Amino acid sequence: MTPLSLQDLEAELKNLDGWTIEQGKLHREFKFASFVEAFGFMSSLALVSEANGHHPEWFNVYNRVTVDLTTHDAGGITQKDIDWAKTANKLA
């Protein structure tokens, strides 16, 4: 897998509500009504991540989940990251 070009990445970002690029990674903060909802979101995505062999960098505090995505093996943001972000948006 190869990193997306800047043009491809910009085009994909137009369809990814809430996502930005920070420090070379796809980035978003999700907010939920409670810790249980935030943890449930993470649990659902953990199963997706494991099935796809693609795992996020994420951080949880109470009702917030902060996510950073990059494909380390490819050295940048790839289609795997875009697909994961789209799934996250659907589950949120």
Automatic annotation (TrEMBL):
Is Cell division found in the keyword set? no
Entry's SUPFAM superfamilies?
PCD-like
Record's keyword terms, sorted:
Lyase
InterPro entries from the xrefs? PCD_sf, Pterin_deHydtase
Q: Which GO terms describe its biological process?
A: tetrahydrobiopterin biosynthetic process
GO function terms (MF aspect): 4-alpha-hydroxytetrahydrobiopterin dehydratase activity
- Family matches, as PANTHER family: PTERIN-4-ALPHA-CARBINOLAMINE DEHYDRATASE
Family that this chain belongs to: Belongs to the pterin-4-alpha-carbinolamine dehydratase family.
Q: What is this protein called?
A: Putative pterin-4-alpha-carbinolamine dehydratase
Origin organism is: Leptolyngbya boryana NIES-2135
Q: What are the leading ranks of the lineage?
A: Bacteria, Bacillati, Cyanobacteriota, Cyanophyceae, Leptolyngbyales
